[in-house]
Amino acid sequence: MPKKKRRSKKQRSEEELLEVEEDSRITRELEDADQLQKDKIDEKNIKIKDSDALKVAESVLDVETKTTLFNLRKRKIIDYMTGVISTGKEANVYHGYAPDGSELAIKIYRTSTNIFKGLQIYIIGDPRFARIKRDQRSFVYAWAKKEFKNLSRAYKAKVSIPEPITCVKDVVVMEFIGKKELPYPLMKDVELKKPLKTYKEVLDNLEKLYHDAGLVHADLSEYNMIYTPKVYFIDISQAVLLDHAYAEIFLYRDIKNITRYFKAQKVDVIEAEDLFEKLTGEPLTDRVIAFEF
Length: 293
Description:
The structure is a single chain. The chain is of the alpha+beta class and 293 residues long. The protein has two domains: 9-181, Phosphorylase Kinase, domain 1; 183-290, Orthogonal Bundle (Transferase(Phosphotransferase), domain 1), CATH 1.10.510.10. 42% of the residues lie in helices and 16% in strands. The chain has helices spanning 9-43, 51-55, 63-74, 136-156, 195-212, 247-264, 272-280, 286-290; strands spanning 80-87, 91-97, 103-109, 164-168, 171-175, 178-179, 182-183, 215-216, 225-227, 231-233, 240-241. The radius of gyration is 21 Å and the shape is globular. The protein starts with 8 loop residues before the first helix and ends with a helix. The relative contact order is 0.09.
């Protein structure tokens, strides 16, 4: 068996230097992206009152996240990142490029805040995450993994969603729904060109999600759909399997949100109760009707 060629001390030093430079590059890109977001906030004179909201404008990067991004670059999944697409209490979403030039959305969940306490209802009882630890970082990693698994199930079922690419720890990489670094708008921010056509498209995706992917979105509304004018469902991290204890309740809430929105668009909609029965094959129960969040 041929002996493995040993690297010289000089080669090792050069490789280590390249790794340090690469790590610094990632850090600079993300810091620049966050600074852009801070500048936007300053320009709009938005007053941020509480500490959680203030962190929206701050970097989500800690040492482990920087290491994760560095490794994703080494694996040639991410080439570089350009700026912030959106910010929130749970995560920042960044625009980036893959080595082949395709555009990416890179979602980085926050590991430093306790906002996930209110999200446990969506993950506890899910057999895919029965053994997660109760510490904050473990929960965040599980939540990111949950989003990736949900995206993968939905994409396989041909639901119109961003194509999932990979998930490592608190970072989820997916297809960017936009053009030339500009994301397409949320449905809430546009005037629909053909409201009835869009309504039917939403129902078609809802049916595929339920019957083919075996999922309930659990937070579906005009705030979580992108309009290109093709419809894309997004923010699918909280989606639950059909055997989840609250799946029917979440489904009815999604249906009510859709019905409310398209009624306001003057579409002749299927009433929420009828749509629920049409989708599930079962009438609404008093438990589902009576439940309030």
